[in-house]
Every structure is written in structure tokens, then in C-alpha cells.
């Protein structure tokens, strides 16, 4: 018998075998027909830990459903927490940070460790045994040190293989997606591929020159060298000068790494999948002929991979799918994605009488607008705003300052506040967000905007951009009220387990270095003439970086241009779920235009459905705050359903739902207490929605059911 090669030459099987044997003899047991499992070059040393599912586990760090819903786990020595204690704190805090963990809100009934993969409420604590692998991805400089983690549950079946990505939301560390993509993946027997995407808990205490190691333990920066999560890029002389001029300050990785990591969030997410394949093939692959390496048993051809997560992690999943040239990702299911598109006049989005044209908008653009207007707008209905902590007198001064700058109209504070709120709605915020603007200003807007100003412009901590810095501040009753002070040693020691990566966090606050009379906590700082107006000069400076022509603005807009996505998902099946009242990442700037641009770019090849949920907003954890639980339902319930539907589609070919509005029912109040949530409050996504609930695309117009 012969084999014909290229129609010309012939080889007998005997001679071909002899040639292969000769190659093996020359190559030291290498086999050209073996597909060997090799560690990606960008990965550093891999730390491996196994958990029994009783004393410790992958999902709850041994705390179980009850522990996650209780008080924070204790640390034996708060000044010297162990890596295990830091991990437990990180899982506890990150799980609770993105979910409502109140029983009345659905924890333990609609979701939670005790609710199994089929949605059945059990008496189990939900602990999941398995193995955890952690490594850095880096280019050799130690300046990137992207933390990667793969969790492989004991229930993983290589004959039914699946991988779920869990890129962290916000600026969180590597455990940031533990309660979203992590929980779903582990419950369904999938390996979960996590990454902190170059953000995470990298806090450099510049005064004492200490940093976080990969396992969270605080280290001397010099001793840590290239192995810290983050060390600010300052020379010894620069550090000394900075500390002399601005003592007790901090550099934080997302803001100050000078890497603009968001441009590579898709890359890091794809790398996490590659790490997962490496781990799984080391664990399950047969030994190669050399007796040392393993073969690639699991590949994209026999493994389901769902790119997932929420918020920034969701945006990273979409970016990964757009950039996936190797076919690593099978499908996408995400919630409330932070995804940025260049405004495109071809696209219009219609909801009722409202029509917005070219509505993709850069995050930094709309955050700096919100940062200016929200405190003034909060005065429209202060008594009914959800969790309103905006100081009315300071907010009124902000209204006055906005009027002086020509940014609002009206002669009275009430008229100016109404003008500010109207400007937000005109820009694209939905009317359903009106009562949420105040709480978002207090807890999110400035912190996110300032972080992104720094990261997009690749500014160093020494630049003190727009006069801002990060520091602990004195209590109101202290000798130095609101002024920078040394941070709590125990808070720093446990920072890996408690920080969200974006000050204010672990007692590190935002400081206005330019406050009249000296640096003060930004919210309490003094503008010219001693007026408190939430630092209008700082807010205007940040806005100029988005809209102006200064050298710093040019730097920021360059960084902004690097994170724009294409909306081309390469024909992959995809589901996006988002709350209509999302006030952090409004649907008009994110989910809606992404859906529309995907239809324009992919045309009939598009397999993306967009699900918009009424009475849902960005932060499920806010549902525990006054004014939220009676109005809003957990979006997490729909994230779970989207994951279930995507998995069924990829596994069995089950139909994906058409784009639609899901109409939920608020819980309401009995007296002053929110009613317990019921299934009737959160009806399911329908495969085929009623005509009145459909979201459609035709002639470059997205029409949203009102």
C-alpha cells in the first residue's frame, strides 16, 4: 500500500514509519504526531492549592452559604494575616460586593451557594471541592503582573468539558467574579478562568514603601521586586521628593500602573482561557512518549467555553470574543457590560418618543459629565432619592458653580437642579435612573472617573492629576479632621481581602490637594473663598480632559481611543442582559448601541440577543440600601438565566431568546419594610417574547419596547 503526497511522490508505509523512527532517534523522544501541552511563555510560576470542600473550598473559602451571609471572617493577627485568611476575606468581600445577600432580596432562594445548578433550593452550604491554580501573566518586566487563576471543581468531567471566563468586575482583584461567573461555572462542573485584567488590589504605600505580593501579603517594595501585584514606577529620588511634598499617599494599580490595561482586557481574558487549557491538559491529558509532558486532550473542538462576567468583566468578555482569532470562545453571556464604542451616526436607538443617534459614548466622557451634574441634580427630589447621602448645602453650592460656568440654567437652586437632571436625561440616562443619581454620585462617580482619567492618560502618581491624590484622612472629631493621615496598619495588612481597587477603599480616600488652606478629603474640601461645592475646580479639570485641548487632555483621549471596541463578535452566539435603570453604565451608551452596531457590522451573521430588564440597575449590592429594595430587582437572576440558556444552546442546540424587554414587578413596601422577593417579581426571559416586549433592528434603527 502507498500514500500519495502532492500527487507526485510515493512512500510505502514501511518507509514512512522508518522515517518517523529516525526523527524520534534524532530528536530525543519527540514525536511529530503528538500535540504536547506546553506552558504559555507569558505565565510565571504556578501556585497550586487543593480544597476538600469541607474545611475550605473554591466557592466560599470554607464559609458556606451561611458564612457568606454573615459577618466578615476573623483574622487571628490583623497586622499579619496569613495568605489563607486573606483569600477567605477576598472571597467573602467580593462575593458580597456584587450581590444582594439579604434573604428578602433572593439570597438563598433565587441564588446563592445552596441553590444548585438547576435552581433548586437545597439545605447544602454549597461548598465546592477542587483545585486552584494562580500565576502571573507578564512580559518579563514585572510591570504587568496580570493575576490569572483557574479553579477546577472536583466535579469537572473531561468527557463533558466546559470553561467559563470570570474576568473581574470593576477594578477588583482576581476573585472579583467569584459570585457571578465563578459560582455558575463551579456549580455546573466547569473550570473557571479568572483574571484581574491588570487592575486588582495593588496598593503601594508610598510613605512606608510597602506593596501587595501575589498572595496579598504586604511586603517591602524593594524585597518584592518584580513579584508584587503593583509597585509604582518611581525612582528612589522621585519617591523621596513625593513623600516630602505629599506625605501619607498611595498609588493604586488601575489608576497608576501607566499601562492603560483596559486596552488589553480582551487579551488577558483570552490568556486566562489558554491558562485553563494548560491546567486541564496537565491534569487530564495522557503522558506523551517522552514520559514527562502531557498531550492536549482538551481543545476548542471538544470543550465548551463561555466568555462571561459582569460590568468591566463583561466588557472584557466581549473584547475577547471580538479578538478571538483562535476559536477559543464558543459563546458569550454577560451582564451590564462596560463596553465603549465610537459614536456612529449610522445608528439610531428609539424608545417611545425618544431617539438618540450615534449613541455609543466613551466611558470617561459620560462619567465626567455625571461628576459635574449629579450632585446638583440630586436636589430635585432629595426626599425620594434612593440612599441619598448628598449634602444639600454643598450640592446647592455646586448648582451655583454650574450656573456660573454656564452648565445649567435657572435662577433658583430648584431650577438649577431641574436643569442638571434634564441635562443628564438628554445625554442618555433613562428617566428610571433619576432617583438613583444621588447615590451613584456618593459612592461611584468620582472614584471611577478619577481612576480612568489617570489610567487613560498613563499618569504617574507623582502627577497628582487635577490636584487629586489618595490618602487616609482624619476623622471629623480628630485633631486633623479630613486631612491626610497615616493609614490604618491593619487595614493595609488586610487590603488584599477587602479592597475593591478603586479609592475610596479600605480607608484610603480621595483628597483634594488644592483645597484652600491645605489638602482635605475631597467631599469636605474648600474651593476659592472657602466655599464647599464638592470641588468644582477638580470636576471641571476632569471634564476638560475629556473635551478640551490641553496636553493632558490629548493624553487622556489617546488612551480612550485605545479601548474602543468593534462590536464584531465573529458570529458567536451571545447574550447581553442589562438593567434599564443602570445609572453607572447607562443602556444608551453600552448595551443598546453595542447590539445595534453588532447588527450593522455582522448583519445576518449576528447571533447576539440583547435583554433589557425593567426595574434593574447596576449594583445588586445596593439593593440592601434604603430606597433600593422596594424599587429594584436583582439583575443577577437574569445573568444566571442567560448563562443557562447559552450553555443549553452550545450543548444541545436549544434556541436562544430573541432580543426583548423583561418586565419585572417591584417588591414594594409593607409599612417601611420591602416585601420579600417572589418568583412573580422576576419573570423569566422568554425564548419568544410578546410583540409588545420585542427589541428589534431594522434600517439601522434599534427599537426598544417602551
Automatic annotation (TrEMBL):
Signal sequence bounds: 1-24
Residues forming the catalytic site: 311
Family recorded in the similarity comment: Belongs to the D-(-)-3-hydroxybutyrate oligomer hydrolase family.
Pathway: Lipid metabolism; butanoate metabolism
Pfam families (UniProt xref): 3HBOH
Function: Participates in the degradation of poly-3-hydroxybutyrate (PHB). It works downstream of poly(3-hydroxybutyrate) depolymerase, hydrolyzing D(-)-3-hydroxybutyrate oligomers of various length (3HB-oligomers) into 3HB-monomers.
One Gene Ontology term, aspect cellular component: extracellular space
Keywords assigned by UniProt, alphabetized: Hydrolase, Secreted, Signal
Any one biological process term the GO annotation gives: butyrate metabolic process
Protein name, entry field: D-(-)-3-hydroxybutyrate oligomer hydrolase
Catalytic function, reaction form: (3R)-hydroxybutanoate dimer + H2O = 2 (R)-3-hydroxybutanoate + H(+)
Intracellular or extracellular location(s): Secreted
Chief subcellular location: secreted
